[in-house]
């Protein structure tokens, strides 16, 4: 039964953008390096970097990169650990694929927030501890939803994949810059305006194409991430913390930029109003106004 739950978490419409993201990355490797005859080795290296990122090493590095550290203060442990355990107990009553235990780390940030990493890591900020217990429970339920659905494992996959693809793009850029520099020197030596113009156009076009490729791929990835936020919200509702989550979304958590279509398109989260509305449609009796 466990294998079917695991497959069910991966084979979702919300993960379609991530699948397209990885497929486009593989196509980039084939298109750029296919003529070299080493395409199999390159794809193998790509998957090796992804595999390493999925190991405990990847999770540790991701936490360190996020500035998350072990909680050392007793008072913070006494405040947050029972709340985390309460949500975990509720989650395990409602789903068979929720982690039994999580590792809680602290990020020194005054903004109230939390995020999940890897397979069993939950990070909270100092600012989250300024909220009421009910609000903290809502946030924790959402993040444990990410862990339960495997969204955070996908983050590790993205991290490993991006590391290799970034290296490929850097190699392409360096090759273009070296070629442009050589041609530029040749143009100066020969005093050829035509060669100089062609060299400038080549350098500019190659830079723009690399930038456009990254932006194009990220469109699909950001879409998947936004859809997964709704799934984690729904998970919080299912285990009994929908009202708490709607309250904290509406009153305390920072919202995504709403001053431009492109900013919203490349955001990792939907706007809070849309998330609250989705929770209300599920049956959460939340209202900002008292009648």
Could you characterize the architecture of this molecule?
The N and C termini lie far apart (47 Å). Mean pLDDT is 79; it is low at 1-5. A four-stranded mixed β-sheet has the order 1-2-4-3, with helices on both faces. Strand 3 and strand 4 (121-125) form a beta hairpin. Helix 9 (242-251) runs antiparallel to helix 11 (272-282). The longest helix is centred in the C-terminal third of the chain and has 46 residues, at 193-238. It contains eleven helices and four strands, in the order H-H-H-H-E-H-E-E-E-H-H-H-H-H-H. The protein has helices at residues 2-10, 16-33, 39-54, 56-65, 74-94, 133-149, 151-190, 193-238, 242-251, 261-265, 272-282; strands at 69-70, 103-107, 114-117, 121-125. The protein has two domains: 2-151, Zincin-like; 165-282, no CATH class. It is mainly alpha-helical. Keywords: Cell membrane, Hydrolase, Membrane, Metal-binding, Metalloprotease, Protease, Transmembrane, Transmembrane helix, Zinc. Belongs to the peptidase M48 family. InterPro entries: HtpX_protease, Peptidase_M48. Residues 99-281 form the Peptidase M48 domain. This is M48 family metalloprotease.
